[in-house]
Amino acid sequence: MFRYQTIPVTAFAQNCSIVWCDETRDAAVIDPGGDLDRLVDAAKQLGVALKAIWLTHAHIDHAGGTAELAGRLNLPIIGPHPGDQFWIDGLPQQSRMFGFPPAGHFTPTRWLADGDTVQIGRCTLNVRHCPGHTPGHVVFHSPEAQRVFVGDVLFAGSIGRTDFPQGNHAQLIASIRDRLWPMGDDTVFIPGHGPESTLGEERRFNPYVKAA
């Protein structure tokens, strides 16, 4: 059975999630933006073994701790899509600009594309490429658990910003409409910031996308 726990990290209160297979206790960490000691301690408390880092996109609040955590625990870095290469290259500059601890750039062990899958233990999640907030943004969907980790694509009552370099508002709306809505109204999404919601709730009431 697929399980997860979300831990807000850094001053940006970014929702980092530890996801794991209840049978094997193997785990991945989605978007380790920082506060790495807290994340490692949380994994120990949960009794799970971190085996991989999965990235939705490469903004500093989501990827700032990636290089250090990968080096510390010898973890493969899975994702995002190659469209975010320039954001990865700019992580050291991003960390200085936003007052984060020094962040190193890295080369993902495996880039992701739309239609790929990722696996932890006996749990498989589907990868959808959802550009707009960043060009290489991906989301991780577990149809079995009816959960999707959407990074900064969609929020409860809002959507991701598109005023950063290579952001694209029309592309973001299309990603939400064409990639997220078909996952079903009952699917719960875990956003990069703020509370969880369901896709159906946002499709009906979110003022930014209810007409999409």
Automatic annotation (TrEMBL):
The keyword Hydrolase applies. Residues 13-193 form the Metallo-beta-lactamase domain. InterPro entries: MBL_Glyoxalase_II, Metallo-B-lactamas, RibonucZ/Hydroxyglut_hydro. The keyword Transmembrane helix does not apply. It holds the Pfam family Lactamase_B. SUPFAM superfamilies: Metallo-hydrolase/oxidoreductase (SSF56281). Transmembrane segments: none annotated. Keywords: Hydrolase, Metal-binding, Zinc. Its EC number is 3.-.-.-. One of its GO terms (molecular function) is metal ion binding. Its cofactor is Zn(2+). It comes from the Bacteria. This is Putative metallo-hydrolase. It comes from Hydrogenophaga pseudoflava (Pseudomonas carboxydoflava).
